[in-house]
Amino acid sequence: VQLQASGGGLVQPGGSLRLSCAATGINFSIFDMDWYRQAPGTQRELVARITTGGSTSYADFVRGRFTISRDNSRRRLYLQLSSLEPEDTARYYCNPRGRPEWGRGTLVTVSS
Predict the structure, then answer these.
(1) CA pseudo-torsion sign 88, 66, 91, 111
(2) What pLDDT is attached to residue 31?
(3) What sign results for the dihedral spanned by CA atoms 11, 41, 43, 105?
(4) What is the layout of strands, in order, in the sheet containing 9-11?
(5) pLDDT score recorded for residue 35
(6) Which residues does 15 contact at the CB level (< 8 Å), separation at least 6?
(7) The sheet that has 76-81: what strands, in order across it?
(8) How far apart are CA 56 and CA 14, in angstroms?
């Protein structure tokens, strides 16, 4: 299983980014998919989840600013980040729910 997250970078507060995750080696469409993030010195935390049926849920700290989506035909997971705040600075990881693989993630830095 390989999970390749991309789309991170340096953005100013209030800015936007679109993260993408390419999943190979798994039957992507049968897994609920999660985005997690981990800031330096903190525990990894769940950001958003999308089920196999397309239902979505978000951590409280998202407050309507992020949108998770998936394209099963391309085996891709997405996370649209908007109204970014410095507190959103972290490495973001995609994960098939219940699987041990994490990949390297993609770094999001929100700073002026």
Answers:
(1) negative
(2) 97
(3) positive
(4) 9-11, 106-110, 90-96, 33-38, 45-50, 56-58
(5) 98
(6) 84, 110
(7) 2-6, 17-24, 76-81, 66-71
(8) 23
